[in-house]
Amino acid sequence: MNILISGGSGFLGSAFSRELMARSRVQNKNVNITWLTRDSSQAHPDDINMMTYEELAQSDMSFEVIVNLAGAGIADSRWSDERKEQLLASRIQPTEALLAFIARTTIKPKLLLSGSAIGWYGTQGDKSLTESSGFETDFAHKLCDDWEQLALKAMNHGVPVAIVRTGIVIHPEGGMLGKLLTPFKMGVGGQLGDGKQIMSWISREDWVGAAIFIIEQHLANHTSEGHHASEQHHTNVSSSDNVLETANDTPAVVYNLTAPNPVTNHTFTKALGTWLHRPTFFTLPEFLLKLMFGEMSTLLIDGQKVLPKALLEAGYEFKQPTFKQALTEQE
After folding, report:
1. In this predicted model, which residue has the larger pLDDT, 163 or 179?
2. How many domains is the chain partitioned into structurally?
């Protein structure tokens, strides 16, 4: 099986690639992974192929699955107007390149798995949110929705789409946890604001496992018959499941990639301090977070309770369903 990954060298893409290759060796299956890159000299594992975007534009290769993860980190810096443009462009440009390849290639992929985030739902406090929930409009929602709507255009070419809305990914190698390790180890870690905001998280091991589960489930049920391209219209999630209602008969689904047990920031802080054997007396008040981070402070202050209803109903079994497990059972 040939798989093309944008963002393959990143925090999620690299772990996803490693697990795919490990499973292929155990199962004695032939899996070829290609990372899309803007830098042909980028370091990479020996068993990973590399392809530049320029090469993709000329390539006649075929891929059974395309995984679209490219995108700058939304929490990496303050949301200036320039940064907002960078965040959008870093998602839109790779997706457009993939769509151009899909439109041109003779043998279409059987699935496009495209990244998104639980920011799609906007700020909704402690309201339980599943794939059929609506949204509140803010910058995070618009960023995610623009990315999702573009990826869904793959259906115009008969390619099914799975959108994965990712929560806070937990692993010490990167993401939010990677950024917090240093201050917490120094004993200056603490809760954010009143600590009551809900954090919807997922261990990196389960993110990888869930993504592979979605792909394998789709390929097992895949049929190329009865899929006809048509003009893409704006989509809404069905009220009963995670199937996106579109004007197109090519299937599209959405999954929340979050653990089934979200925690408050207070619980997160205390668990992290216990794991590191460090005190967590400090508190960063809300006004200071807003002063430091501006509009981006909403990611730290305003909670989201996003649940993986579709993933659980599909039969995925979490390896690390609790936050304590995510901290103590790292690979």
Report:
1. 163
2. 1
